[in-house]
Design goal:
Blueprint: H1 2-22, H2 30-49, H3 58-70, H4 75-84, H5 89-101, H6 107-127, H7 131-140, H8 143-149, H9 151-168, H10 172-185, H11 205-220, H12 222-233, H13 243-262, H14 281-297, H15 305-310, H16 315-325, H17 330-352
């Protein structure tokens, strides 16, 4: 448990150090943000890269053994295995290539940890109004602990974070190429195509109503998603309700509620401003968060596979809540920031207490 606790407090330790070095607030200086995210990212990477193969679910051990097996096969033999394997060929061919350069199977955790960290930290750097809150939420609210274990889907999720920038810029070709690459690593990533159709250019009352209607339509379509849920994640999941799941759902609902209440709307009759992107970022990430909430809610009335699909959209939380806190100042902002940090750490410890990730063990132990 100790390495995870160190990881959870790392963002708080680096915060005053980086502020003091740059003599400014992290959230007001891009260079300070780069340094801060590099330091936090280094810890995120090391926890993944140095862990033993037995830490986490059996998926981690399977990925470890796949790397070990493919490293010993020539291309013709590897082709036979890949052709008949249930895992996507993009992932397996990548493993075959890398494992012949770096044969020790521990490299599967090194490369995946490095890719996750670069992708997530870049995403937060580009989009967040509060990088400290975003990195704390990433570590503590479940995304990080999922990505530590579900490596193949997490690679696809990380690729989707690169694709999201092209969705914002309405660049269909680059978006489609990245989505195709993600699909070759995990078929479930196909659902992320939905983000390209989140096209609002302003955040207005009308947009809020449209988001609610869209959420209702998605929930009405639950039987359709259930039909394909287990198939696209290639697992046979049943319906499950547990306290951890309820906490996840509650987190989604609270973030959405405060976003609807406190993110200011624009006047539809006001002169349109020049946008950096071709979509309004507030409504864009709020819509992504709502998609995640809808898919997560479906686990209770459909299949648990839809919970795994919801992780693609959970990154919206990391941006939406900082958008909310940006609209406060003074003592109110400080209280909100402290509340988010404390609650995040409490949830992190609570979730780890019954997790396969505990106890942590380094690969040389």
């Amino acid at each position: 448990m100790i390495p995870y606790l160190v990881l959870a407090v790392t963002p708080l330790i680096f915060l005053p150090l980086v502020n003091a070095y740059y003599k400014t607030s992290i959230n007001e200086d891009k260079k300070a943000q780069k340094t801060y995210l590099f330091l936090c990212g280094a810890m995120l990477f090391l926890i993944i890269a140095l862990r033993d193969k037995e830490v986490g679910s059996t998926d981690s051990l399977n990925y470890y053994n796949n790397w070990k097996t493919l490293s010993k096969l020539d291309f013709s033999k590897a082709q036979v295995i890949i052709k008949n394997h249930k895992m996507e060929p993009g992932y397996l061919y990548t493993v075959w290539v890398l494992s012949h350069i770096f044969p020790h199977p521990q490299w599967v955790f090194v490369f995946s940890g490095l890719f996750f960290t670069i992708s997530v930290c870049r995403f937060i750097y580009i989009n967040s109004d509060n990088v400290v809150m975003s990195i704390m939420m990433y570590i503590c609210l479940g995304l990080y602990t999922f990505m530590v274990q579900g490596l193949r889907q997490s690679v696809a999720m990380s690729i989707c974070l690169f694709a999201i920038e092209h969705a914002k810029k309405r660049n269909p070709i680059k978006f489609a190429i990245l989505m195709l690459i993600a699909w070759f690593f995990h078929r479930s990533s196909i659902v992320f195509i939905l983000t390209y159709f989140l096209f609002w250019k302003e955040f207005t009352i009308k947009v809020k109503l449209q988001l609610l209607v869209a959420a209702a339509l998605i929930l009405i379509s639950t039987p359709l998603f259930v039909l394909y849920g287990n198939e696209i994640v290639d697992r046979e999941y049943g319906q499950t309700v547990d306290s951890g799941g309820v906490i996840f759902l509650a987190t989604y609902l609270i973030i959405l509620l405060v976003a609807f209440l406190f993110i200011p709307v624009q006047n539809e009759k006001a002169e349109k401003r020049l946008l950096k992107y071709k979509v309004d970022e507030k409504s864009f990430f709020l819509a992504i968060t709502m998609l995640g909430c809808c898919f997560y809610f479906m686990r209770y009335i459909g299949t648990l596979a839809l919970e795994r699909i919801s992780f693609y959209f959970m990154f919206g939380q990391l941006i939406t809540l900082p958008h909310v806190t940006k609209n406060f100042d003074g003592i109110s902002k400080m209280i909100i920031n402290m509340a988010v940090i404390i609650l995040s750490m409490v949830l992190f410890i609570y979730r780890l207490s019954g997790s396969d990730l505990v106890p942590y063990q380094f690969f040389w132990q």
